[in-house]
């Protein structure tokens, strides 16, 4: 079972790029790395998923080095509405294992 | 695609009562998951179905909890003899596993308050 470590909280300002790094030293060979965003009183929302190298979509980029022991979620030019909790996840036979996540606070 | 829906969105009940929640997954998703989330914590896995078969149950799912997915579409989660410790957000997710990935899409959750 992958042990996942990510910062508990981060602060940023509007318009900045935010990078959240997650450590997963013993992630399983078959596991994808997945990031979710969650606002208060809502279900988690899928952001991005990758296996290795770099993945980009309209919302974010995900960088995964060759050893896959860490990954970095990059949010370009954040706005106030990006204030949320961000979860880095591994999976085990389908079920998702959530940690406490990173609480991102974007300030004006 | 209407997304995953859950009903009710909020439920307040007295200790000892039974409650039932419903989840409607994204159509044609064959996997359905239930999670529970308490304040300040990430969601915790409870159980999941592939079609109508319940394939895994967490140790968190005591014998007061039961989940069903009778026709492989919607699912219900019932809690009998509720306790105050059952107060939480109950989340449902669905997926269609393919090519080694199993991206799960979550519903808005049902918030349970046990008085």
Key words describing this protein structure:
heterodimer; A: 108 residues; mainly beta; six-stranded mixed sheet; five-stranded antiparallel sheet; 11 strands; 54% strand; globular; B: 115 residues; 49% strand
Overall mean pLDDT of chain A stands at 91
Structural class of chain A: mainly beta
The largest pleated sheet of chain B is described as: 7 strands, mixed
- What share of residues of chain A is helical? under 10%
Description:
The complex is a heterodimer of chains A (108) and B (115). In chain A, 0% of the residues lie in helices and 54% in strands. Chain A is an all-beta fold and 108 residues long. In chain A, a hairpin with a 4-residue loop joins strand 6 and strand 7 (61-64). The mean pLDDT of chain A is 91. Helices cover 0% and strands 49% of the residues of chain B. In chain B, strand 7 (65-68) and strand 8 (75-79) form a beta hairpin. The chains are: A mainly beta (108), B mainly beta (115).
Write the layout of secondary structure elements.
The complex is a heterodimer of chains A (108) and B (115).
Chain A: E1 4-5, E2 9-13, E3 18-24, E4 33-38, E5 45-50, E6 53-56, E7 61-64, E8 70-75, E9 84-92, E10 95-97, E11 102-107
Parallel strand pairs in A: 2-11
Antiparallel strand pairs in A: 1-3, 3-8, 4-5, 4-9, 6-7, 7-8, 9-10, 9-11
Chain B: E1 5-7, E2 10-13, E3 19-24, E4 31-37, E5 44-50, E6 53-57, E7 65-68, E8 75-79, E9 88-95, E10 105-106, E11 110-114
Parallel strand pairs in B: 2-11
Antiparallel strand pairs in B: 1-3, 3-8, 4-5, 4-9, 5-6, 7-8, 9-10, 9-11
